[in-house]
Design a protein that fits this description.
By secondary structure, this protein is α+β, with helices and mostly antiparallel strands. It contains five helices and five strands. The protein has helices at residues 8-18, 32-51, 130-148, 159-184, 186-202; strands at residues 57-63, 77-82, 89-94, 98-103, 115-121. It has a three-stranded antiparallel sheet. It has a two-stranded antiparallel sheet with strand order 3-4. Helix 1 runs parallel beside helix 3 (130-148) and helix 2 (32-51) crosses helix 3 (130-148). The two termini are 42 Å apart.
Length: 203
């Protein structure tokens, strides 16, 4: 049987066990410790997403202005950065339309053409890959313990565990990025394929 990814409930239970509490069958936000644990977990999840990894970052994502030239920030977007560094485009709250893209160079909300951007998306805990979930639980668990118990000697995970989880996440995402780059680059793939055939003939 395949192991299932860690759920949000399992993550909160891990944090509760870390301060000596019994696990629960469901998260009840009205119970203070459960609410604090869930809040700390969600904060770390946002921090991970804002850092930006392959799993939540799209490059060359096209945003198109509406009939008035206004480009609204898509729901779930945490950070938007134009691919063209010459464009001075920033996220700002429009007086009437919510958050959108502001042309800081020309001091206007009116953008006349689609813009390619790098965009980081906000995900829930259950939408993260397993390596990111593992890091989030440890980082949030340490913050939760410090907030509720406040005893450094009771740190269940420890700084070294958090560091290892972060390195695991970075290595996993780096490997994923390298694989995707290789598959996307037909020239590179062809070169490696040719080298492989030459090497086999040489044997």
């Amino acid at each position: 049987m395949l192991a299932a990814p860690m759920t949000e409930l399992e993550a909160v239970n891990d944090m509760l066990i870390g301060i000596g509490q019994l696990p629960v069958n469901a998260i009840i936000p009205e119970i203070v410790d459960q609410s604090i644990a869930l809040g700390e977990l969600n904060k770390v999840v946002r921090e991970v997403c804002l850092y930006g990894f392959k799993f939540n970052t799209d490059e060359d994502h096209v945003l198109t202005p509406d009939v008035d030239g206004f480009i609204a920030v898509p729901t779930g977007a945490l950070d938007i950065d134009p691919m063209d560094k010459a464009q001075d485009i920033v996220v700002r709250k429009h007086p009437n339309k919510g958050f959108g893209l502001w042309d800081a160079a020309n001091l206007t909300w009116t953008i006349t053409a689609p813009i390619k951007v790098r965009i980081k998306w906000s995900f829930t805990f259950d939408a993260l890959p397993e390596a990111a979930r593992g890091y989030a639980v440890i980082a949030a668990g340490r913050k939760f313990q410090a907030r509720v118990v406040g005893d450094p000697t009771a740190d269940r995970f420890g700084e070294e565990d958090q560091r290892r989880a972060w390195l695991t996440l970075q290595r996993q995402q780096s490997a994923s990025a390298d694989t995707n780059l290789f598959r996307a680059n037909k020239t590179l793939a062809a070169q490696v394929h040719r080298r492989g055939r030459v090497w086999r003939r040489a044997k």
